[in-house]
Amino acid sequence: MTTISESLRSGLWTDNPGLVQLLGLCPLLAVTGTFVNGLGLGLATLLVMVLSNALVSATRRFIRPEIRIPMYVLIISSMVTCIQLIILAWFPALGRSLGIFIALIVTNCAIVARAEIFASRNSILASMRDGLTMGAGFALLLCALGAFRELIGHGSIVARLDMLFGGEPMRGLTLVDGGFLLAILPPGAFISLALFIAGKNELDRRRQQKHSQLQRRSG
Amino acid sequence: MSGEKRGPQIWSSAIILASLAAICTALVAVTHRTAAPRIAANEQAYLEQSLAPVLAGLTYDGKLTESTMTIPVPHSLPGDAPVNVYRVFASEQPVAALFVVSARDGFTGPIKLLVGVAASGELTGVRVLEHKETPGLGDLIDSTRSDWILQFSGKSLGNPQASRWAVRRDGGDFDQLTGASITPRAVVKAIKETLLYFETHRDEVFAQDTPMADAVAEQQ
Description:
The complex is a heterodimer of chains A (about 220) and B (about 220). A two-stranded antiparallel sheet of chain A has the order 1-2. Chain A has helices at about 5-15, 25-30, 35-60, 70-90, 90-100, 100-105, 110-115, 125-155, 160-165, 185-219; strands spanning about 155, 175. In chain A, about 70% of the residues lie in helices and about 0% in strands. Chain A is built from ten helices and two strands, in the order ααααααααβαβα. With about 220 residues, chain A is an all-alpha fold. Chain B is built from three helices and five strands, in the order αβββββαα. In chain B, strands 1-2-3-4-5 form a five-stranded antiparallel β-sheet, with helices on both faces. In chain B, a hairpin with a 4-residue loop joins β4 and β5. Chain B is elongated. Chain B starts with a helix and ends with a helix. The interface of A and B includes residues 66, 85, 86, 96 and 185 of A.
């Protein structure tokens, strides 16, 4: 049984679905042109992960190896459909902005991966926690990528938050007018993600070096 | 595994899968029931909200969506698909017609435009509904990105004259966009084609209970 802090550490950092496992790259790269899109899809993915993990775990007694994939697909796709309907009903502007990518959460292999690796073998509560931490790791990466690309591409921070929270259209903080166009185009998505992964690996490497130095000194 | 055991196992797998499908379908059905009225209301509101800018404050009777007409192909309007027209009436007199046309020759695919034409033939306004133009260059045709599209309000086939319906670079009267020449050209051309169509088909567009409108009603 893992503790909450271990599970958080794994979801947000050591096993981050986007940064480390490189799962679900299609939505990750496609919608992160702005922060609000990243946040919206991140939250939707997180919700799907928690719910689908809960349902997979609840039905794990009935899961047979030969029908497990159709079962996961059924559960995940119906959860995604529900969430798509909810977004279209209560957050229509966000729904229009994310478009097809809400429905494409179904194809996010990070979710099937968690169903297979974790939820089909653990209790409902633990599975929901796993969905929450893994989903949070994915959502945070989406937000960070979105904010980064928006800052460089549009020169603004947190524009159009009204799409999620309602109210008048908000332009956000505009630091520079215009920006470096490449960042919001598809190549910018790959380059930004690569920078993020490189940054994470560098941090890990430094930490490990420090760790081994300490060990050598004490040993 | 022996053949005798395999039979029942396949049956139980099928039953498990079927019951799970039933549960999931029920979940989706319940969510759909709760969400459907709101989604329909959102779509209606969005449509009226997106039509409002090209109406230029005109008053009208009833719901715009109820006076919809579809012009089937072939037609001389921009785009290859049937064109939806929202007809605006006040006291049963035609006030304006809003065409949803698509300019085929955008830089990265078709540009969907909403072109509002007053009964007199003047443009009440033009808005871009959908496009895939380059961010920062061609996407300035979008009213949320720049005021470029606003220059068309009040223009008509006589103002400027037909030969001047082009961007400045092509010897016309309309502003271009720095760094993008294909996109504005496509938009100007589509608007001009819509005005030409309206000039020759005005009575058909405003005719009540046209055979075309009946055909659409039957389809629905």
